[in-house]
Design brief:
The chain is of the alpha+beta class and about 1100 residues long. The protein contains 20 helices and 55 strands.
C-alpha cells in the first residue's frame, strides 16, 4: 500500500427528477465493501466498491436532507433534517426501529461494538440514551446547552455544544466525569462543528467570533487539540483555508485529516508538528458537503453539492473499502408475499388477517383511567343595561359601562394630543388659520436630545381610512419624492434613492426596462420602474414595494442577505453591516442582470474598452486591472485579471501623537484600492506551502466613471477618522486619485466628485435607521443654492453641502459613499440606449399558463391601428389577493388602532377600450403569477380561487407581474387616460404612479364634499345604469365596463345640465337604501333574479321623470 493518496474515479449518485442532489452524509461500512451515502432528498443508498454499483436504498423520513449516517456490523443508523426521528435499518433496507421524541433530534453518537448504548442530543437541552437493539429510551439527562457533536468510546462520552464547550461524560450516567475541572473546556467562541478522538488526543473545529459588535460567526481557522486525560490544551493546528471537516486516521494515534469546503486536504501529525504535512487539492466545480474515511484509512470519500462522491486512495490495487473480504454484499430485502385468498360471498373477513400490535390498542382503554367530567359554575349574566347598548365591531362586542354599574377606579388625566396634521381627514376639522401642515412646526417629532429633527426616525400612522389618509405632504415640501417604510425590506430605501440620483445608473435602469429581459425577478428592471415612478411623481410619496419584494425573493433563493421586516426588527440590529452587505449584493446582481441587453451598449470611449462590451453596470462601476501574486519562497509572479465593483475601506492605525497628521479620505481610499493582501497556499511553481502577496495594478485611465465605496466603519476607532475636527470635515466635495502600475504610482491624476452618501442615524433612546444624502442632478440644473437633499424615507429636506458632508457626532455613521468621475460626464455615451417601451407587447400573448382554457379568454389584442396615443381612453379595474393580514389593536372603548396595514398583491387586471367602434372590449385581461405565499384569495371580492395563479393549474391567461407592469407602464407613457372606480388605491398596490391629469375616477365624479361619503360602484351601477353587479364575486371586466358607462352617463348628464340635480337625488334616495342596492329576489315565473326598480326609473316608466335616465 502506498503512503500518499491519489485520485481515483468518482462515484456519481442518482439524480432526482433529472437534477443532481447534494451528498449530505457519508459512512464506510466496517465489515462490507460498501460506502453508504445520504442525499439531500432524504434517501440513504449503498454503493458497492470503487466502481459505485448501486445497492439497497431506503428513506429516513420526510423530504429533507440526511443529516448523519453511522454503520455497524449488522445495521445502519441514520438521521434526517425533516425531524422524523432517528432510525435503524438492516443493510437490506428493512427498518428495525424508529425513535421519535416530541422535540427535534440534533445529532447522535456512534455505537462501538463493545457498547450497549447510543447517545442522542435533543433540542430541549436533554441527552437521551437509547438501546441500539430496539431503540428504546433507557434514560434522559439534562444538559446546559444544545449538544451539536457526540463521540462515544468504551470508557467515555465526549460532547461538543453550541456554546463552544467540549465536555467529557460518564457513559453510564451521562453526567460529568469525576475529576473536577477536567470535565470541560471552552474550545471555541461559538458552536462546535466537529470532534474526533484518537489515542489520547481530542481534536475539534468550530465557529469563531470577531471582536466587533453584532458580528456574524465565522469558521475558526484553528483545529483545537486537547489531552483527553486532563483536557489540557495542546498546540493547535492552523488551517487558513477554514476547516469544515476533520477525521482521525484509523490505526494512527495522533494523525488527522483536515478538509475545507473548497476541497483543500491537509494530513497532519499532532504529536510531531515539525513533520512535513501532506496537502491535496480536489478538482471540484462546487463545494464539499460531507466526508468519511474508511476503517483502514486506505480510502477517503468526499461528497459535493452536485451529487458526486470523490475518492482518494492509498491502495495500489482495487482492495475493498473495509480492507478484507468481509460479509457478503446485502441486497434489498423483499417483502413476504401476501396469502392468496379465493374471495367468495362466504369468505370470512378474519381470513384477511390483521397487523401485529405489540402494545394494547386504544379501544381497550380501561374505564378507571378515563377522565371524569369537571363541572363549573355558569358564568355571570351580562346586565341588561349593557346588552341594550351593545355594539359590534368585527365580531367583537363593546358597550359603555352605565353609571349605576361603575365603581371606584383609578383614573388619570391624559393630556390632549397635539395635532400635527398627519391625517388629511383631520385637516377639515382644524380651526381656521391654524396651519399645522408645516414640517418645521415646533411640535414635530419627539425629544431625542442630540439628533436633529430632520434626521429622526419617522413612522407612518394609520387612521380608519387607511394609509391613504396619511398626510405625506406634511413631511415633504420639495419636488423630489420620498419612499414609504411600512413594507418588507424597506431598509433598502436609502440605497434605492442613491441609485436613482446617480444619473448614469438611472439611465441604464430606465433603458433596461425597454429590453426583453428574460428574468421574472430582476432588480435592474425594478430599479428602472421605480426610477420612472420617482421622476413622474415630482414630490408625491412613492413606495418601492415591487423592488423590495424582488429583493426578498432573490435573497431567499441565494441565502445571501437577511430579510428585515419593518417594525419587527430587533432593537440592536446593526444597519451599518446590513446595508453594506445588501449594497454589494445589489451591485453584483445589477452587473449580471445588465448582461441581458440584446447587445451590450458601449458607454466608454473605445480606447479604454475591449472590442466586446462588458455589462453596462460593470462599465460604470467595475474597477478593472491585473492582480500580481508573488510567492515568498520562489519569488515567482503570477498575473490574474481582477475586476471588482465595490471598494471596502481599510483604515490604518490611528497616529499615537497629535504631531502626526491623520490620513485624509483620498489617501485611505487609494490605499484601500491598492492594498497588499497576503494569504497562504501551495505554490503551483515551487510546490511549497508558502505565503503569497497580491497587489492590484490599475492605471488612472482604468479607474471607473463611478466609485462605489463601503465605508466599513464599525467601531469608535474607525469613526474617529470621519468625525469633524477643528471645523473641517473628513469628506471634501472633490477627491483626487491616481492609479498604480506594478507598485509605481501613475503620474496622471483623476478627480472624483462626491455624489451621494448613505448614513446610519441612531439616537440614545431610539431605534437606528438609514438615510440617503444625495446631490440631486435636477437641483443642479435649475440652479438651486444647494443641490444636496436629505432623504429620510418619506421625509425630504434641502440641506447645505457642509451639513451633507459633516459627521459631527456618533449619531451619524457613514455606510456607503458614491463618487463620480468629473471627466466622465462628457465622455459617457448613452446614444445606443433606447427609452421607449415596445408597444407590440399589447398585441401579443404573454401567458405562461400550461393548461389555459381557450373558452375563458375574454380579451382581444390591440390591432396596430389601435395602439394607444395621447388622450386614448381606457377603462381599468384590478383584483387583489391578501399576502399579509392587517394587525390591529382593539381598545377598551371598542375602537381599534391599525398597527400594520394588510398587504395585498395584484392578482388580476383588466383594461378595456374606452372609445371607438370596439368600446368596452378588453385588450388586457391578465391573471398575475406570484411566487409568494397567499394568505387569503379573497374570492368573494376578487373572484380569484386557489390554482388560478399557478402556471400548472390556471385555466386563465397567466402573466408574470413584470410583464403586466410593462403593459401598464406603456399605457401611462403613451398618455392614455384611465377610467375606473377607486383607482388611487389600485395604482398604489400595483406600485405605479399615474399623473392626475391621466386619471378619471368615477368615485370622485359622483361625489359631494358636503356629504363626506363616497359611493360604491355597485350602488351607482344599480341606481344609474339599472344593473346589478358584484352579486356573487367581483369581475374586473364587469367593474371596468360599469365605470366606463358611468363616465359616459356623467357626460350625458352634463350635456343636459342636470348632473348636480341628479347627484343630489342619488344621495337623497341612497340614504333610504343605506347606499346599497336592494337584495335580489327570485322571480318564480322566469326563474331569473329580479330586483326593485330605482324610484327614478318608476317615474320614467310613468312618463313623469323630469330628469331623464341614461340607458346603459
Amino acid at each position: 500500500m502506498a503512503t500518499s493518496y491519489k485520485n481515483i474515479p468518482p462515484i456519481a449518485t442518482s439524480p432526482l427528477n433529472g437534477f443532481a442532489q447534494p451528498v449530505t452524509a457519508l459512512s464506510f461500512d466496517p465489515v462490507s465493501d460498501i460506502l453508504w451515502t445520504g442525499l439531500d432528498s432524504g434517501t440513504v443508498t449503498a454503493y458497492f466498491g470503487t466502481h459505485g454499483i448501486r445497492g439497497p436504498s431506503f428513506r429516513v423520513g420526510g423530504n429533507l436532507a440526511v443529516k448523519k449516517i453511522t454503520s455497524g456490523d449488522n445495521n445502519v443508523q441514520a438521521l434526517g433534517e425533516a425531524s422524523e426521528g432517528l432510525g435503524s435499518w438492516m443493510k437490506g433496507g428493512v427498518n428495525k426501529w424508529f425513535y421519535r421524541p416530541d422535540v427535534n433530534i440534533v445529532t447522535f453518537s456512534n455505537t462501538p461494538s463493545s457498547s450497549n448504548i447510543m447517545a442522542v442530543s435533543l433540542a430541549n437541552l436533554e441527552m437521551a440514551f437509547l438501546s441500539p437493539i430496539n431503540g428504546a429510551c433507557i434514560r434522559k439527562v439534562p444538559t446546559t446547552s444544545v449538544l451539536t457533536q457526540l463521540e462515544l468510546s468504551h470508557s467515555m462520552l465526549l460532547s461538543g455544544s453550541s456554546d463552544g464547550y467540549l465536555r467529557v461524560h460518564d457513559p453510564r450516567t451521562g453526567m460529568g466525569r469525576s475529576g473536577g475541572t477536567e470535565n470541560f473546556v471552552k474550545a471555541h467562541a461559538r458552536s462546535i462543528q466537529g470532534i474526533q478522538t484518537t489515542g489520547n488526543f481530542v481534536f475539534s473545529i468550530g465557529m469563531g467570533e470577531r471582536p466587533v459588535k453584532h458580528s456574524r460567526p465565522f469558521p475558526d481557522p484553528l483545529v483545537k487539540v486537547y489531552d483527553l486525560r486532563t483536557m489540557r490544551p495542546l498546540p493547535p493546528i492552523p488551517f487558513s483555508a477554514g476547516p469544515a471537516f476533520i477525521h482521525a486516521i484509523p490505526k494512527k494515534t495522533s494523525s488527522l485529516v483536515v478538509i475545507s469546503n473548497q476541497g483543500l486536504i491537509n494530513v497532519v501529525d499532532a504529536s510531531n508538528p515539525s513533520a512535513s504535512n501532506e496537502f491535496y487539492q480536489l478538482d471540484i466545480p462546487t463545494y464539499i458537503t460531507s466526508t468519511s474515511i474508511s476503517p483502514t484509512a486506505a480510502y477517503v470519500a468526499f461528497g459535493d453539492a452536485e451529487g458526486t462522491v470523490h475518492l482518494l486512495s492509498q491502495a495500489d490495487n482495487n482492495i475493498p473499502f473495509n480492507g478484507f473480504e468481509g460479509q457478503p454484499v446485502p441486497w434489498a430485502d423483499t417483502a413476504a408475499p401476501s396469502p392468496d385468498i379465493e374471495w367468495t360471498k362466504s369468505t370470512p373477513l378474519n381470513s384477511v388477517g390483521m397487523p401485529y400490535f405489540d402494545t394494547q390498542l386504544l379501544s381497550a382503554w380501561p374505564s378507571n383511567l378515563s377522565s371524569k367530567a369537571v363541572s363549573y359554575s355558569p358564568p355571570q349574566n351580562i346586565p341588561s343595561q349593557i346588552l341594550a347598548s351593545m355594539k359590534f365591531n368585527e365580531n367583537i362586542a363593546y358597550a359603555t359601562l352605565p353609571k349605576e354599574l361603575r365603581g371606584r377606579r383609578n383614573m388619570t388625566n391624559a393630556e390632549p394630543r397635539k395635532g400635527v396634521g398627519r391625517f388629511r381627514s383631520g385637516k377639515t376639522m382644524e380651526e381656521p388659520g391654524h396651519d399645522s401642515s408645516s414640517y418645521d412646526s415646533p411640535g414635530f417629532g419627539h425629544g431625542d436630545g442630540e439628533v436633529p429633527r430632520r434626521y429622526r426616525r419617522v413612522e407612518i400612522e394609520y387612521s380608519k381610512f387607511g394609509v391613504e389618509d396619511f398626510d405625506f405632504g406634511f413631511y415633504n415640501k420639495t419636488e423630489f419624492s420620498g419612499l414609504e417604510t411600512h413594507i418588507l425590506n424597506s431598509y433598502t430605501n436609502s440605497v434605492v434613492q442613491v441609485m436613482h440620483y446617480i444619473w448614469p445608473i438611472r439611465q441604464l435602469a430606465k433603458a433596461h426596462i425597454t429590453d426583453n429581459c428574460p428574468r421574472e425577478h430582476c432588480l435592474l428592471c425594478e430599479l428602472g420602474f421605480i426610477s420612472r415612478m420617482l421622476e413622474d411623481a415630482r414630490g408625491t410619496n412613492c413606495q418601492a414595494s415591487n423592488f423590495c419584494k424582488t429583493v426578498g425573493v432573490l435573497a431567499q433563493a441565494s441565502n445571501a442577505i437577511e430579510i428585515i421586516d419593518y417594525g419587527r426588527e430587533a432593537s440592536e440590529i446593526d444597519y451599518l453591516q446590513k446595508i453594506q452587505i445588501f449594497h454589494r449584493f445589489l451591485v453584483d446582481h445589477l452587473s449580471s442582470e445588465g448582461n441581458s441587453f440584446s447587445n451590450n451598449p458601449s458607454l466608454l470611449p473605445s480606447s479604454t474598452q475591449s472590442t466586446q462590451a462588458a455589462s453596462p453596470v460593470t462599465q460604470l462601476l467595475g474597477i478593472d486591472g491585473q492582480n500580481f501574486v508573488t510567492c515568498s519562497v520562489c519569488k515567482g509572479i503570477r498575473e490574474k485579471p481582477l475586476l471588482t465593483h465595490v471598494v471596502d475601506l481599510v483604515y490604518p492605525k490611528k497616529p499615537m501623537t497629535n504631531e502626526q497628521a491623520s490620513p485624509n479620505f483620498s489617501n485611505i481610499l487609494r490605499s484601500s484600492l491598492f492594498r497588499q493582501v497576503t494569504h497562504k497556499a501551495v505554490c503551483p511553481l515551487c510546490k511549497h506551502f508558502s505565503t503569497f502577496v497580491s497587489r492590484r495594478s490599475t492605471s488612472s485611465q482604468q479607474l471607473p466613471p463611478i466609485l462605489a465605496v463601503n465605508a466599513s466603519v464599525y467601531n469608535d476607532e474607525t469613526f474617529s477618522f470621519w468625525q469633524d475636527s477643528r471645523g473641517s470635515t473628513f469628506l471634501q466635495p472633490r477627491v483626487s486619485l491616481c492609479g498604480q502600475i506594478g507598485g509605481v504610482d501613475d503620474t496622471e491624476e483623476v478627480v472624483y466628485e462626491i455624489r451621494a452618501l448613505v448614513a446610519r442615524i441612531c439616537g440614545k433612546d431610539s431605534k437606528s435607521h438609514l438615510v440617503a444624502i444625495v446631490k440631486v442632478p435636477e437641483a443642479e440644473e435649475i440652479g438651486m443654492s444647494s443641490p444636496w437633499f436629505l432623504f429620510n424615507d418619506f421625509v425630504v429636506t434641502n440641506i447645505s453641502q457642509e451639513e451633507a458632508l459633516s459627521f459631527p457626532d456618533k449619531w451619524k455613521f457613514p455606510a456607503i459613499v458614491y463618487l463620480e468621475r468629473v471627466d466622465s460626464r462628457s465622455t459617457l455615451n448613452f446614444s445606443d440606449l433606447t427609452y421607449d417601451l415596445d408597444s407590440s407587447i399589447l398585441s401579443r400573448d404573454t401567458s405562461i399558463a400550461i393548461n389555459r382554457d381557450p373558452a375563458l379568454i375574454k380579451h382581444e389584442f390591440l390591432h396596430p391601428d389601435e395602439l394607444p396615443k395621447p388622450g386614448t381612453l381606457v377603462a381599468i379595474d384590478a383584483e387583489f389577493v391578501l399576502m399579509e393580514q392587517e394587525e390591529t389593536e382593539f381598545r377598551s372603548d371598542g375602537t381599534k388602532k391599525v398597527l400594520r396595514p394588510a398587504r395585498f398583491s395584484l392578482a388580476r387586471v383588466s383594461v378595456l377600450r374606452g372609445n371607438g367602434p370596439r368600446e368596452g372590449v378588453p385588450f388586457i385581461d391578465d391573471h398575475i403569477h406570484t411566487s409568494e405565499i397567499i394568505v387569503d384569495y379573497l374570492t368573494e371580492f376578487s373572484g380569484i380561487k386557489f390554482g388560478d395563479l399557478d402556471p400548472l393549474h390556471s385555466k386563465y391567461t397567466l402573466t408574470p407581474l413584470k410583464l403586466v407592469y410593462k403593459k401598464l407602464r406603456l399605457l401611462v407613457d403613451s398618455g392614455c387616460i384611465f377610467i375606473g372606480h377607486g383607482l388611487s388605491k389600485d395604482f398604489r398596490i400595483i406600485n405605479i404612479y399615474v399623473p392626475p391629469e391621466q386619471v378619471i375616477d368615477t368615485v370622485d365624479l359622483y361625489f359631494l364634499k358636503a356629504r363626506q361619503r363616497r359611493l360604491s360602484l355597485r350602488f351607482l351601477s344599480w341606481y344609474i345604469l339599472g344593473e346589478h353587479i358584484q352579486t356573487d364575486t367581483h369581475d374586473s371586466i364587469e367593474d371596468a365596463r360599469s365605470a366606463l358607462r358611468l363616465y359616459n352617463a356623467y357626460h350625458e348628464f352634463e350635456a343636459q345640465g342636470i348632473f348636480d340635480q341628479k347627484l343630489d337625488e342619488i344621495y337623497k334616495e341612497g340614504r333610504q337604501f343605506g347606499f346599497k342596492p336592494p337584495i335580489l329576489l327570485d322571480a318564480p315565473e322566469t326563474g331569473e333574479n329580479s330586483s326593485p326598480i330605482p324610484p327614478h326609473r318608476l317615474a320614467q316608466n310613468n312618463g313623469t321623470d323630469p330628469i331623464g335616465f341614461v340607458q346603459g
